């Protein structure tokens, strides 16, 4: 008799493919069309026509409220994604954010976008289209929204292949390198945004219901201004550049009919500058449909919001940040919806468990923000922090003007003893510092 681990592996390989055979359109029926639909220049008639083509796969309706988990590429190509789909079936989770292009520049699956093929972005352990179809069809069958995460500016693979699109050094005109020796793309260049639009088109036609763009900013490096030059700036501030590029990206892919989402620094809700990265709240909320501030308490400096140790006060950090966000969005016509990223990982004391995760979620609810996504770099999640599916309605009935809880909510919360997790492989330790 086979061991349980071998049996589980067999089921993980056979069951999804069986589901795909029952529920999906044949892969060959729409993949060839994608080459014509999404590979042309975004300014071409062919690309514009492609955006109006009927989708081969009916997308999952966007849930409200939306409650999601991040799935890194290793979790997606391994068994973990099936465990997370099972978690979503049993709990309040109704969306998974999946790396379609990560911050190394790797595309999850074999792509029909010529640039991805040219630079080999889709050649590093790509997910087969049969497995991709099985994953997306299983999610659709269970009402789980697949969201495509596409990293834009932090793409060292593309920056090395297309050095003309990379940020350049003042000293010698060669690509500027960050502290890890990696080049970054220049946000002024249209090429990286065009590439992102093409990948987004492909992802939506494959069955992703939303597109989430990450690293839509300049590098967070104090040496950048001194070391780099930006000949395409033409006197524009960085925040204006990011706003213009996001607005253009949004209009380009608008015919796809999916919300355009942008991940931004958590402190953007409160900092009135662009923090040197080109992200200013008032401009961002006019450029996309959804903004996702990465409000990880561990990433706030001591003293922020008058809190000596922000990581130890998850409720107070989220509460303060969302109050600022609401105030700054007030009066802006068509301001983007806010869906915060919350922390489900430990970075310094205290250990983060169910209590810390729920404290962040409660702070959102107390501010009328009922949607959220949890971030863990390795896709390891505290399952005990998630409510069973049947309790979903209880958490959604929250008044936007509810009274903020007292000091007990902002006190240091002890770690939870019952912190069962689902685990996946982290792409790199550096992802933990994502903001």
Report what the structure shows:
This protein has 435 residues and is α/β, with parallel strands linked by helices. Helix content is 35%, strand content 12%. The chain has helices at residues 4-23, 31-38, 45-51, 73-77, 80-90, 114-118, 129-141, 156-161, 191-206, 224-227, 238-253, 281-284, 314-329, 354-366, 392-396, 407-410, and strands spanning 67-71, 95-101, 145-151, 168-169, 210-214, 228-229, 260-265, 290-294, 337-338, 341-343, 372-375, 381-382, 421-422. Helix 14 links the parallel strand 10 and strand 11 (372-375). The longest helix has 20 residues, at 4-23.
Reading the helices and strands in chain order gives HHHEHHEHHEHEHEHEHEHEHEEHEEHHE
Separation of termini? Answer: 48 Å
Q: What is the average of the pLDDT values?
A: 84
Shape: globular
Question: What structural class do you assign from the helix and strand content?
Answer: alpha/beta
Low-confidence stretches: 1-32, 396-421, 423-433
Helix fraction bin: 25-40%
Major sheet: size, sense and barrel closure?
9 strands, parallel
Radius of gyration: 21 Å
Tell me what portion of residues adopts beta-strand conformation: 5-15%
- Reading side by side through the largest sheet, how are the strands ordered? 9-8-7-5-3-2-1-11-10
**Total number of helical segments?**
16
